[in-house]
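Rotation project, supervised by the postdoc (A.L.). Task for the rotation student: set up a whole-complex structure prediction and record inputs and outputs verbatim in this book. Inputs entered:
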Amino acid sequence: MSGEVVDNAPLELSDLINRVLDKGAVIAGSVTISVGDIDLIQLDLTVVLTAIETVRSAERRRGELQTDVNANVPVLPGD
Amino acid sequence: MTGVDGAVVHAVHAAELIAWVSDVADTVTPTVDRVRAHDAVCAAALDRGETPLPIRFGQTFPDDKAVVSELAARESVLRSRLARVAGCVELRLVMPPDAFRVREEETTTDTGTADAASAGSDTSREADGPGTAFLKQLARRDREDLARAVGCEEVRDAVRFAAKSLIVGQQPCESARGVSFFPVLVRRAEVEAFRSAIAETLRSQAIPLSVLGPFAPYSFAGDA
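Outputs recorded:
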């Protein structure tokens, strides 16, 4: 080690978050991390939250579009 | 032993695998305390002498029976991953955001787009409009990202050269949440030998690099 780092605390915290949230074996198919409360990495949280909100908005739009499409589909006899 | 939110950790047996689990609320949003608790359980498992396969934070199951079912379904995969990390620990070589700082003149002399925007005026460099300033900011950010990526790979190569025989596995450089890092997998008994082997190399690189760990092998658990 170089020995030039005096205070490792911020580095260690960032590394802890990177390690535990981003790595490790996934057993249950996929993992969705709902981010919040980690106030020491606010910038990244903002980005992540923005991304999540964008995805949700897109899903909402898709849902609305699908509803509109379905509304225009004629109902066939027997359906 | 306790895990997330102080819940007691208990063992769930499935075939020849054992999972350490604890009861949680339906969803577990990550907080620093919860992430620390999760990591502490992995560290405790590592301290028992047998290298565990760390599970990513945030996975929940309806009950212990569901855990057994999932483990049984993935037993062969999990066993091969356990075999891959057996007897080893993860060390993480971590560099702070300013480890590979770009010199100011490099970001202002050849940023083609920004210069094109300011061409034709000797004084425009001193009075950039908001568009030019934005382009320069983008160019600077790109250069900083590139400097970090290249710098980290150079350190990784140097470490690999200095301690080749001690490295069981190595992952590529990554940059996240303000730090650049790369994980290495080394045998438990050779952690200090690894640190010694790379010490002189790192000193000569003059980079504020920290070797964190040993940890349970999160980065070698297979789903990274």
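Student's summary: Chain B touches chain A through 52 residues (CB under 8 Å).
Supervisor addendum: Helices of chain B lie at 32-47, 64-73, 75-85, 104-109, 112-118, 130-162, 191-205.
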